[in-house]
Amino acid sequence: MMFDSRISIFMGMFGSGKTEISLNVAVKLKEKFKRVALADIDVISPYFRSRDHVEELNRMGIKLIAPHGALMHADLPIISPVVHGYIANEEYSLVIDVGGNDDGAIALGSLKVALDGKNVKTYFVINPYRPFTNTVEKTVEHLQRLSRVSRRRIDFLINNANLGRETTVENVLFGEKFISRVSELTNIPVAATVIADDLNFEEEKFPIFKIKKFLKTPWEG
């Protein structure tokens, strides 16, 4: 299985698509494991939050860990203390969705003691069509800084090159070349190329992870 650690952490700059990937990984894990939880510790973005899909996740038997009630949509550095319990609970396969800048990395860093010694892999999601990661140099700079701030080693990179509904095979191939260069400069291997489930892509440079689109931009309704 592609995401085979008990705890999978997804980091990335704003707009990288890490939340979409986190949701899809949780759904995929549920096909194999009885108990799956998704921890939404994205304390930054007012859009694209895993917590907005709590009812759908509940129907699939996936436990969502996020602030509740009036705090559910607050832009505050709130991490539910319940997260620590799921990190410690060996019966659960856990996905952690992290916010997309230094504040998000700081929030993840607060979990360092809880995560130390656990079976964890940390993934950095890259979309070269977003402003923060549209050059290799900027991408490497942000990756290295967020790794330091979060006190987490990045284990793998994920190519999520896309332009939403306008994505072409050429866009994805550009992403593979782009992330290959980032990998060379950082010595971090590439785990996968992410492909929307309606895109016909047959290249085999990296393993393919097909995703369903859960999230919509505000203008998509």
UniProtKB/TrEMBL annotation:
Top-rank taxon of the source lineage equals Bacteria
Q: Which InterPro entries match?
A: CobQ/CobB/MinD/ParA_Nub-bd_dom (IPR002586), P-loop_NTPase (IPR027417)
Residue limits of the CobQ/CobB/MinD/ParA nucleotide binding domain? 15-143
Under Gene3D superfamilies, the record lists: P-loop containing nucleotide triphosphate hydrolases
Supply the name of the protein.
Cobalamin biosynthesis protein CobQ
